[in-house]
Structures are given as C-alpha cells and as structure tokens.
Amino acid sequence: MRHKHERTAKHGRLSPYVKFLDKLTFIAGIVGPFTVLPQVYSIFATHSAAGVSLVTWVAMFVVTFPWILYGMAHKDKSIVTSFILWEVVNALVIAGVLIYS
In whole angstroms, what is the distance from residue 34 CA to residue 56 CA? Predict the structure, then answer.
C-alpha cells in the first residue's frame, strides 16, 4: 500500500489499469497459498508423502521468507500477508513429509 501512495503522490491519479492490477495481485496473493491445500490434504489424509520432495518444499520455505522481510521493510501488508500464508502451507507440507516419509 505504501507504494500505491508513493505512485499517487509522484504521478497524480493512478490509472484504472494500475488500480485493477493492484486489486488483482492482492487477490492472487491471498488465494495463491490455498492452491497448496490439496497437497496438504493428500499427505495427511493418506498418511503418505510418496512423490513429494522434501528438498523442494524446504527450498520454497527458505526463498519465501525474504519476501516477508521485504514486505515489512516496505510496509506492504499485502506482501507480508501473502507470504506468511505461503510459509504456513509450505511448513504444513514439510511437516507432512517429515511425519509420513
């Protein structure tokens, strides 16, 4: 949101395209992490993590964390919220792999 205010102050009014893109990315940022829930459900419902790569999900967890710091540094609640949600679902998959492998 801070960037939105800076863009408005610098360029005047935001274009309808930029406003739409801001809303779209906010929605995608919140909905995106929920796309992992079928994987989480599959692991915990079947008690099997066969075919799920621990290395991949740990890497996802690690590379997602700096985005939380970035969002905090820029005071962007959308980024912080989105990537905290990503970390939660990544951690759930990691936990499932560790428990059921």
Answer: 18
Whole-model pTM above 0.85?
Answer: no
The number of helix segments (H) and strand segments (E) in the chain equals: 5, 0
Instruction: Please say whether the beta carbons of 66 and 79 come within 8 A.
Output: no
| pLDDT tens profile 44-83 | 999 999 999 999 999 999 999 999 999 999 999 999 999 9
For domain 26-100, which CATH number applies: 1.20.1280.290, 1.10.760.10, 3.30.260.10, 3.40.1190.20? Answer: 1.20.1280.290
Selection from 66, 81, 91 nearest residue 30 by Cα? 81
Q: Say which residue the tokens 């998959």 belong to.
A: 93
Structure tokens at 67: 């985005």
**Beta-carbon count within 10 A of 39 CB:** 16
